[in-house]
Amino acid sequence: MTFASTELFRRAQEYMPGGVNSPVRACLAVGTEPLFIDHARGSRIYSVDGGEYVDFVLSWGPMLLGHAHPAVTAAVCEAAGRGASFGAPCPDELYLAQLLVAALPAVEMVRMVNSGTEAAMSALRLARACTGRSAFLKFTGCYHGHADPFLAAAGSGVASLSLPGTPGVPPGVVADTLLCAYNDLQGAERLFAARGRDIAAVIVEPAAANMGLVLPAPGFLQGLRALCTRNGSLLIFDEVITGFRVAYGGAQTRFGIQPDLTVLGKIIGGGLPVGAYGGKAEYMRRIAPAGDVYQAGTLSGNPAASAAGRAMLETLQGCAYEALEQRVEGFCRELENLFAAKGLPVCINRCASMFALFFTEGPVRDFAGAAAADAGRWARFYRFMRGRGFYLAPSAFETAMVSFAHTDGEFAAFVDAARDFAG
Ligand code: KE4
Question: Can you tell me which atom of ligand 1 is nearest the CA of 118?
Fold first, then answer.
């Protein structure tokens, strides 16, 4: 017997905080309850209630090939049949590491972990060890996972639920977290002028996708690169979302900027739990057991997850990124035109195969701009579109993801439904 989402959610709340295993999924920011998903295939996701939806969440980014891609599914099944986990080196983790190093110009060595959070916290620990410094700079509205040092003015679920950023995190832990508005290069320069010699790293989403989508202004990333070089700090690109999405070689290829360390996740695991951090060998060799910076993980380099990531990246090598980007650009332009024709202020930021729709005149260049958008209208839009068979992120501080499986017909149907929403 299958239960409806509402019954499952009622029960789930008795066993898991908020009935979910990650806050933003609870749909609190959009005034409804979450769907429980039975299965997914290609661009579509199917609820236990029999609902069918065109999926623009894609598990928050990983499913760039679409759900249940045959190559990835076959790789996972084959690997699992040989044993789910060994706690010992296996060929696929090496092959995945080789694919990452081959694809990412700033990555000479890589360490596999199990989530983006673990990757970001480890990269920060490494940067602090390599520089002997403690302070680091992050940007308001950027999200680098839930490790203590990053929960100051974070994006994603922290922003969606208007949570005070750091309950349970001792003030001393975030005392070294310096904050600046995204795209505020002068603000970053002032922080470096005041504390340059204390700053171990700057960590940045090279396209910020956790406050909706906010793109780097011309010169912003280049400016951060120069600031870090000048002050002996490490530049960390958090490419958990942009990695293999904005280009096969990530944002560091798209924007032509080499960070010192790169944080990865999502796509590189093909939907299974994987994260990674990497960078110049001179830094990575500080990681135990090669060096003295400790970091470990029971399931790191897991054979099934590594096989999924390997199949994902090998398949992506044959995909037409440019063509998908052009299709998404056309889709976003049609949305802009329809809302303009209805006199509804909307700003749509897009980059490659992801976009964010803000109910505000715009432009949206930082978290303040994103927060000024009409979140109530977003919640109504979310509920309306879900009713019309489109599965969006349940928050105005997330980014819509498109896969190679999405069709032009699905884009057109989305535009039609959005036009009906606009009235
Ligand atoms: P995970 O620990 O969730 O694997 O990765 C953390 C992370 C790090 N860096 C960036 C740029 C990220 O976007 C994320 C996680 N992304 C959010 C959605 N935008 C995860 C969704 C959730 O928390 O449920």
Answer: 2
